[in-house]
Amino acid sequence: VVVKPGGPSLAAAAVRPCPGRIRHFKI
Amino acid sequence: APHGPGLGYTQLNCDDPETEQAAQVALDYINTNLAGGFKHVLNQIDKAELWSRRPAGEIYVLELDTLETTCHALDHTPPEKCPVRERMEHAVEGDCDVQLLKMDGQFRVLSVKCHSSPDSAEDVIKLCPDCPLLVPRNSTKVVHAVEAALAAFNAHSNGSYFQLVEVSRAQLAPLPPSVYVEFVVAATDCVAKEVTDPTKCNLLAEKQYAFCKAAVPEKVDAEVSVTCKMFQTQPVVPQPQPEGTSAPEVGPGAPMTHQADVTAAAGPVL
Description:
With 27 residues, chain A is an all-alpha fold. Helix content of chain A is 19%, strand content 0%. Chain A is built from one helix and no strands. Chain A has one helix spanning 10-14. Chain A is elongated. Chain A starts with 9 loop residues before the first helix and ends in a 13-residue tail after the last helix. Chain B is α+β, with helices and mostly antiparallel strands. Chain B has four helices and ten strands; from the N terminus they run E-H-E-E-E-E-H-E-H-E-E-E-E-H. Chain B has helices spanning 17-32, 121-127, 140-155, 259-264, and strands at 9-11, 38-52, 58-72, 92-103, 106-118, 133-134, 160-173, 178-191, 209-217, 225-230. In chain B, the strands form two sheets. A five-stranded antiparallel sheet of chain B has the order 1-2-3-4-5. A five-stranded antiparallel sheet of chain B has the order 6-7-8-9-10. The two termini of chain B are 33 Å apart. The longest helix of chain B has 16 residues, at 17-32. The chains are: A mainly alpha (27), B alpha+beta (270).
């Protein structure tokens, strides 16, 4: 994997903004 | 139209405090405007987009997963204090598409579309093979169970005769074969001990609702157990009328009006 300088970091790419957390249980 | 500068949308983090705040405003709106059934609480935010709006403001487009609570829509308990319906009671989830406008720091609900669906019978049985499963509220067994429960309730009522308003949910239990029903009743102008023809009884103008749970064994002559929670009476609220129309009918035979309907027109503001 080649990461360009100034591009998004691998940590940032791993963030999944959605769906959010489950508060109770998933059906 | 092609997206011009500032007209696109931003994908929001579903767990951002602001996204959660928007979701909560939508949930409050949903619970305030329920026509019947049970209050729901937020379970998960599936999707969150932020669109810019001309000439001002921002539009939040959210997809929400909700879960049914045990609090009926007429119950004044705040939804956050309502227990979520357990999976062993055959849970029900809601899927809602909502749009909110945020302007001057305030959220306003623009549109809500919700669809609810029960957990699958297979999943409930996997969890506990003898758990009662949800059944259609208009099935013959359910209708008979509600009639028996209401008759038992009225037989022990020293005051008003209560009339059925809504069958809220129904489950069939295998052992012993029983029907569990949850339903809403309302007081009428008849006295329970003196009723001869219930069809002549009218709901009171100042509505007195009660939410009842009953277990009705299928065995003939078995004892029916029914418990009801009375809600505070709901005062008659005059409805805003367009010019040229007469005042609303508020007599005993007037159609029922939930207080929630009144707030629907204005929309909630945080």
